[in-house]
């Protein structure tokens, strides 16, 4: 069972408790799990907890970041290849799937898996057979698959960017981690634990938030979710050990000076980076900035207007009005 005292299991908010309860139940099974949630909500941590709480805990936990795989190498990376399977295949290669034999295979950023490889992945999920490139005999592999994504897979299926059959096969047990802004009552618990942990690591006295700073944290939208809170607490321990953390401190460290997205990925912010550059060199047009922000938010959310509006902290109607104004679709 997952220990209830672990930092990564902390929280009392109903949505989080529900996910935790479901994850405890599913951990001991071999079912495929799909972890969903915005960037920084703790998907990778949950995947590891599932593995640690499973009968496979002593076996391998292999992570494959599907977004980082080049399309030409992905098949051999995942499934392995036989010696001489293609030019440059000088020796046999055991793929990541086979490396995870007996343990857990974590397919991170599954929404970014190239379409070309999705059919082969589906076949593997259905019959547990792993077919190395250039090898006739498939090999039976026993792995538990956990996948994660911050993308809206259903929308990607509609847009033809993700296979529907794979989507359904992955959804055996979907676990949706709530964003931090919906876990208001957990913020104090998490922040205190982070401050104490970092302080202990650095051998200093933990700082603490004033009542009004904590109120401020509870009303902040947390685009970077737990990652952002963790970083804030680490900074607080470095710069303010043993002190009271005032609203001015959190504002200086959190209030977006430029618009930020709940992702560390750069591509979503490209429009903004351009806008910022323009500002540095020749002043900035607010109209351009607004258009670029809307474009970037729509890109980040795969065109989902409700999510994009939430990212921009405006109503959906306002977003639609402004999209019309900028002739965006
Ligand atoms: N419940 C938690 N308790 C403690 N730390 C957490 C918790 N959830 C997440 N974190 C920390 O927040 C950071 C982000 O977590 P993680 O990498 O698991 O998020 P993610 O959902 O996989 O994000 P991304 O979509 O950007 O990959 C990590 O440093 C992780 O240790
Ligand atoms: Mg992750």
Secondary-structure map:
Blueprint: H1 14-27, E1 33-36, H2 43-52, E2 61-65, H3 74-79, H4 96-99, E3 104-108, H5 115-127, E4 129-130, E5 139-140, E6 144-149, H6 153-158, H7 164-170, E7 173-176, H8 187-202, E8 208-209, H9 211-219, H10 225-240, E9 244-245, H11 247-254, H12 270-282, H13 286-300, H14 305-312, H15 316-325
Parallel strand pairs: 1-6, 1-7, 2-3, 3-6, 8-9
Antiparallel strand pairs: 4-5
The chain binds adenosine-5'-triphosphate (ATP) and magnesium ion.
The site of magnesium ion (MG) has 3 residues, from helix 2.
Polypeptide structure, described:
- By secondary structure, the chain is an alpha/beta fold.
- The chain has helices spanning 14-27, 43-52, 74-79, 96-99, 115-127, 153-158, 164-170, 187-202, 211-219, 225-240, 247-254, 270-282, 286-300, 305-312, 316-325, and strands at residues 33-36, 61-65, 104-108, 129-130, 139-140, 144-149, 173-176, 208-209, 244-245.
- It has three domains: 7-178, Rossmann fold, CATH 3.40.50; 184-254, Orthogonal Bundle (Helicase, Ruva Protein, domain 3), CATH 1.10.8.60; 267-325, Orthogonal Bundle (Arc Repressor Mutant, subunit A).
- The strands form three sheets. A five-stranded parallel sheet has the order 2-3-6-1-7. Strands 4-5 form a two-stranded antiparallel ribbon.
- β4 and β5 form a beta hairpin.
- It is globular, with a radius of gyration of 22 Å.
- The relative contact order is 0.11.
- The model is unreliable at 1-5 and 257-284 (pLDDT under 50).
- Bound molecules: adenosine-5'-triphosphate (ATP) and magnesium ion.
């Amino acid at each position: 069972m997952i220990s209830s005292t672990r930092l990564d299991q902390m929280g009392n908010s109903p949505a989080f408790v529900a996910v935790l309860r479901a994850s405890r139940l599913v951990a001991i099974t071999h079912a495929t799990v799909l972890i969903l949630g915005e960037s920084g909500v703790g998907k990778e941590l949950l995947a590891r907890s599932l593995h640690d709480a499973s009968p496979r805990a002593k076996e391998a936990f292999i992570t494959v970041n599907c977004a980082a795989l080049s399309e030409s190498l992905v098949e051999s990376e995942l499934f392995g290849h036989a010696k001489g399977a293609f030019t440059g295949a000088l020796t046999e290669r055991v793929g990541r799937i086979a490396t995870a034999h007996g343990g857990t295979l974590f397919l991170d950023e599954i929404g970014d898996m190239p379409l070309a490889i999705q059919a082969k992945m589906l076949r593997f999920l259905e019959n547990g057979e792993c077919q190395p490139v250039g090898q006739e005999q498939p090999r039976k592999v026993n792995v538990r698959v956990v996948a994660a994504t911050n993308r809206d897979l259903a929308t990607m299926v509609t847009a033809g960017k993700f296979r529907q059959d794979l989507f359904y096969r992955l959804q055996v047990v979907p676990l949706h981690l709530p964003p931090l802004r919906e876990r208001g009552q957990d913020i104090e618990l998490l922040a205190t634990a982070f401050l104490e942990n970092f302080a202990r690591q650095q051998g200093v006295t933990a700082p603490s938030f004033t009542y009004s700073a904590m109120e401020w944290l509870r009303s902040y939208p947390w685009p970077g979710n737990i990652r952002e809170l963790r970083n804030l607490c680490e900074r607080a321990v470095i710069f303010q050990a043993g002190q009271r953390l005032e609203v001015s401190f959190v504002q200086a460290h959190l209030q977006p000076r430029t618009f930020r997205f709940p992702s560390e990925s750069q591509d979503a912010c490209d429009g903004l980076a351009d806008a910022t550059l323009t500002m540095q060199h020749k002043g900035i047009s607010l109209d351009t900035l607004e258009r670029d922000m809307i474009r970037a938010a729509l890109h980040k959310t795969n065109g989902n207007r409700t999510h994009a509006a939430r990212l921009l902290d405006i109503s959906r109607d306002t977003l639609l009005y402004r999209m019309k104004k900028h002739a965006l679709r």
